[in-house]
Amino acid sequence: xxxxxxxxxxxxxxxxxxxxxxxxxxxxxxxxxxxxxxxxxxxxxxxxxxxxxxxxxxxxxxxxxxxxxxxxxxxxxxxxxxxxxxxxxxxxxxxxxxxxxxxxxxxxxxxxxxxxxxxxxxxxxxxxxxxxxxxxxxxxxxxxxxxxxxxxxxxxxxxxxxxxxxxxxxxxxxxxxxxxxxxxxxxxxxxxxxxxxxxxxxxxxxxxxxxxxxxxxxxxxxxxxxxxxxxxxxxxxxxxxxxxxxxxxxxxxxxxxxxxxxxxxxxxxxxxxxxxxxxxxxxxxxxxxxxxxxxxxxxxxxxxxxxxxxxxxxxxxxxxx
Length: 321
Known about the structure:
Structural class: alpha+beta
Largest sheet: 4 strands, mixed
Number of helices: 6
Order of helices and strands: HHEEEEEEEEHEHEHHEE
């Protein structure tokens, strides 16, 4: 279509030049002629001038149309190439992923507890046989061949990273046929222990609210005991303490009318506040503690010990005191 327009503009330009030349020719002939009759030459010149005006108008319209079409085409090619004037940023509003790329972001943050799997971005899904690589094996040593389905991740879209320490690494992923390839910078950071403990309380209270139960308040009386129990289960994952005493001796009830309860969790299904509460809610006995209408207080202990078997350790104490 652009070629046709260019040829049309060239033709109109040629017609314009011919009209101008014809007008000059008529004018010169008329000046040389001895006749006083100006009617025919004037008519011819008038017709030619009219034709020139029309031709100029058509030329201008053609040039404007061609210019707009070229700009629109360039914009389209610019968009299809994935090039934008604005840099890619981390945002909840993820940009549209260009063809051949995998992620809408350029970077992401993961807690050292491996709280999330790394997944393909946007609508990108099931690319088949892929490779996953990491530039810093001291941070992410590699990837498991599957995702953690128990946390809700799909192996056709996600991979579970093998985290070795905190720091930054560049993850490269792509398909072996070369159709897809992309990189993303992954920053691995320490988990925010105190923040996560408070988040557990908030999540539990949301659940209790949904079940028409009163919210729990933070138990300052058993706060230290919860931290102690989280540390103790690193070496002995039981409700019995390392000294063979019962769990409730960590925060004994002040009177015979007070009651208390304990939930414990550890391992690859307890890597964040959300995941650990889900783990407890999926267990009948732990769920009963969370939904016990008699409890009014709760405290949480959390320990991240990456060099141990289970790595993440949680203790949740409920009480009426």
